[in-house]
Design a protein that fits this description.
The protein is α+β, with helices and mostly antiparallel strands and 143 residues long. It has four helices and six strands, in the order αββαββββαα.
């Protein structure tokens, strides 16, 4: 499927993305959900990506697996597993985290995109004091 190939190419080096290219991948009425927020429509998704890529020095996704799905109630057509490597700037530590994306593809465009990842690992653990506390709680729960 061509949409999956475009998805992989686009996310390989997300920080060099031209936001106008999102129209080649996402449908006009796309719903994009991640642990931070929900965006409806290509314009909203394009604005979101513009803001994200503006603040990142580098953002790369290593796509581990793309799994085509059988018919299901949510009409998810593919599940993608990935590892993201994010560099905000050289003074901050590199953030690496694993995640999963659910996709619904219709007419070779993504109409639904939902990301699942550990927001604490991505954000909270890198905030002074709060990061220490989040790591402490995780460690305590693991024992």
């Amino acid at each position: 499927m061509y949409a999956i190939t475009r998805f992989k190419e686009l996310y390989q080096e997300l920080s060099s993305l031209n936001p106008d290219d999102l129209g080649l991948l996402y449908a006009d009425d796309v719903v994009f959900i991640d642990p931070i927020t929900t965006h409806r429509g290509l314009t909203a998704v394009t604005q979101y990506f513009s803001a994200l890529t503006e603040h990142a020095e580098s953002c790369q996704f290593d796509i581990d697996n793309v799994i085509a799905c059988e018919k299901n109630a949510q009409q998810i057509t593919h599940v993608v597993t990935w590892t993201m490597t994010l560099i905000i700037n050289k003074r901050r530590p590199t953030i690496t985290l694993d995640g999963i994306t659910q996709l619904r593809i219709c007419n070779d465009r993504i109409t639904y995109h939902r990301d699942y990842y550990d927001l604490g690992e991505m954000v909270y653990e890198h905030i002074p004091i709060l990061g220490w506390f989040v790591k402490k709680v995780k460690k305590r729960l693991a024992t």
